[in-house]
Each structure stands twice: as C-alpha cells, then as structure tokens.
Amino acid sequence: MNASSLEQFLSMGGYGLYVWGSFGMCALVIALELALIAQRRRALAQTDEDAAPALTPEAGA
C-alpha cells in the first residue's frame, strides 16, 4: 500500500471527516461508558463493605 492509496482511504472520497469523526465519537462514548461502569462498581463494592459488618453476627454473641 503506497502513501497515495492510504491518503485516499483516509479521505474516503471527501467523507473522511464524517466517517472518522463518527468512529472517534463512538470510541469516546464507549470509553466513557466503561469508565462510568468501573466507577459504579467501585462505589457498590464500597457500599457492600460498609454494610457487611452490620449484617454479620459478632463472635460469641
């Protein structure tokens, strides 16, 4: 593949900005969603750890 054909591929017949912009936005939204999921999992795990001592019986009781 030479530089000319790569340039033609990236320009997509004049629609490259729209195509690659759409791919970029999708990648950004997916990355944001993954980050938010990880944040919610950490918050839920912390909530579970905070509630766990109240749910377990004390030793010798």
Polypeptide structure, described:
The mean pLDDT is 87. The chain has helices at 3-11, 16-55. It contains 2 helices and no strands.
**What's the tally of helices?**
2
β-strand number: 0
What proportion of the residues is helical, as a percent range? over 70%
N-C termini distance:
75 Å
Q: In one word, what is the shape?
A: rod-shaped
**Helix-strand makeup class:** mainly alpha
> Major beta sheet, specifics?
none
Features of the shown structure:
80% helix, 61 residues, mainly alpha
Overview in brief:
With 61 residues, this protein is mainly α. The protein has helices spanning 3-11, 16-55.
Describe the secondary-structure layout.
Elements: H1 3-11, H2 16-55
